[in-house]
Amino acid sequence: MTAHQQRSMLNKVPYVTLYFWVIKILATTVGETGADFLNIKLGLGLNLTSVVMTLALAIALFIQMGSRRYVPWQYWLVVVFLSIVGTLITDTMTDELGISLYISTTGFTLALIATFIFWYRSEGTLSIHDIDTPRRETFYWLAILFTFALGTAGGDLVSEKANLGYLTAGLIFGGLIALITIGYYAKALGPVLAFWLAYILTRPLGASLGDLITQPHSNGGMGMGTMPVSSVFLVVIVSLVAYLSVSRIDSPMNHTSKA
Predict the structure, then answer these.
(1) Buried b (16+ CB within 10 A) or exposed e, 37-62
(2) Contact 222, 208 (CB under 8 A)
(3) DSSP three-state, residue 132
(4) Could you tell me if residue 10 is inside a domain?
(5) What is the domain range of residue 227?
(6) What is the per-residue pLDDT across 11-62, written as a single tens digit (0 to 9) for each?
(7) Which of 37, 167, 228, 257 has the fewest CB atoms within 10 Å, i.e. is most exposed?
(8) What total of structural domains would you count in the chain?
(9) Which superkingdom does the taxonomy of this entry point to (predicted)?
(10) What SS3 class is residue 254?
(11) Which of 75, 65, 63 is nearest to 16 (CA)?
(12) 169 lies in a domain?
């Protein structure tokens, strides 16, 4: 067994496949619709919803970081809860504290950049194929939390403050992701930079799609409601994660190339 294969056994992050991006976008949409459902439809309120979801995230992170290898359901459970908590952080700053989306978007951008700087200075890499120590995994999850919060703020800024609407915002973010993909395959962008740029943009893409589907017609949405949309998307996520658990096609051990 090679040294890289030994390190891959401990890698806590899935190999990036098409399934990765599909689940990620669905998870971001669930984060948007799920937060709205708990906060508004169930009447928990923003503060109580934030407390409940933060506790759930803490439990999921405890399970994930206590594992010695990548386990699909553990990993994606954390992603879903991070998506919800990231949305709630931005919503709390906007709705409860009255902080401008311009300020929150700038603040989360700076926080994400600072996380990457400290991560790189500490570990010498930002590659997701080397998440094999507790410190690297901590940097990884912190960066992802900021991408969700930033994506929520940026998405709301484009779709609501700029009055472009959810569909237009979704097309803008989808177009940017397409450009990043083209840049990656044209070798104009490195794999690490391309990954993180796409990861950031999938959050506002998913949020825009979630709002487009669930918001009432009066707000420019399709009016399908948060409950049915969240339920369907969760079923799809669970089904895909179950498939990955059985097939192991995204297991780091099955891929020896690095990015």
Answers:
(1) bbbeeeebebeebbeebeeebeebbe
(2) no
(3) coil
(4) no
(5) 18-244
(6) 788 988 999 999 998 888 777 677 767 767 666 777 888 888 899 999 999 9
(7) 257
(8) 1
(9) Bacteria
(10) helix
(11) 75
(12) yes
